[in-house]
Amino acid sequence: MTDRPALLITGVGAHADPWHGLAATGTALASVLEERMPVRRIDTDEVAGGAALTDAALIVVNISGDLATDAAAASAVLDPLLEAVASGIPLLAVHSSSLAFRDDPRWAELLGGRWVPGVTMHPQIGWSLVQPTAPLAPFRVYDERYSHLEIGAESALRAIHTDDGLTHPLAWARQGTAGHGAVAYSALGHGAEAYRSAGTRALVHALVDELLGAEPAERPPLSPSPPPGADARTDLEAAALDYELIALAPRGTAVASTRFTDRFDDGELLASGYLLVERLPTGGAALHSHGREVGRVSPVARGLRVDLPGAEIDGRMLRAADAGIVLVAEAGEWQSSGDGSAMLLGDAWRVVVVHGPASAKLDNRVRLLDDLRALPETQKEQHA
Question: Are 173 and 36 part of one and the same domain?
Answer without folding.
Answer: yes
